[in-house]
Amino acid sequence: LVLIPDENYSKDNFVIEDSCISSKDLEDGQVLVKALYISVDPYLAGVFRGMPAGSIASSLQISKIMATKSDKFKVGDIVTNALHEAEGYADVAAGHSEWSTYFIRSANKLYNIDNLDKDIPTDYYLSALGLTGATAYYGLLDIGLMKKGEQVFVSGAAGATGSVVGQIAKNVQNGHVVGTAGNNDKIKWLKDDLKFDDAINYKDF
Question: Which end of the chain is more exposed for a tag (fewer CB within 10 A), N or C?
């Protein structure tokens, strides 16, 4: 990050640099990983604004173990930092991995997804089965305390979290679900694909 903006980000805020690391740099309990998928989520704008210029951008990722000095993983394991047990927003950010093709980090902040359901696409662990899905699930059921069959209104229903909230409310809790979105293509997607009971284009009002 070479420039921290007050508002919108652009390519001018970032610079790509080369550096060298190898398995020889590993300390006990560390792993060398290769990034496979890197999340770029809206909340990162706030995280980056709290970082000094010159910091390495970081986020939740899915990676492959290339070398290890930890008994927790073997070479070839597919891991993510999106499932570590965070205690609040700051701890989620603390669990980020830097935006780098290869990097070294502690094995304790990584979770092995190689032994999970092979029919689930790997990148889902950065979305519906990662932080997005956890936010939707706990927000709706643990904080919102939705009961079976209740009516639910979802603002921003076509977004990453809102769309999962609606699906949990509809398909798990058997609720009556209405959502809002900002254009008619999104409205159609909510009703036709996600089976919302109704959806409203808030720009019509």
Answer: C
- DSSP character for 6? S
Q: How far apart are CA 124 and CA 126, in angstroms?
A: 5
Alpha carbon of 20 to those of 2, 32, 127, 137: distances in Å?
20, 12, 31, 40
10-residue averages of pLDDT along the chain (205 residues): 80 87 89 92 82 85 94 92 54 69 88 81 87 91 96 95 96 97 96 97 93
Enumerate the β-bridge partners of residue 61: 38
Name the one residue in this structure whose structure tokens are 């951008």.
57
- 92 neighbors 55 (Cβ within 8 angstroms): no
**CA-to-CA distance for 133 and 59, rounded, in angstroms?**
16
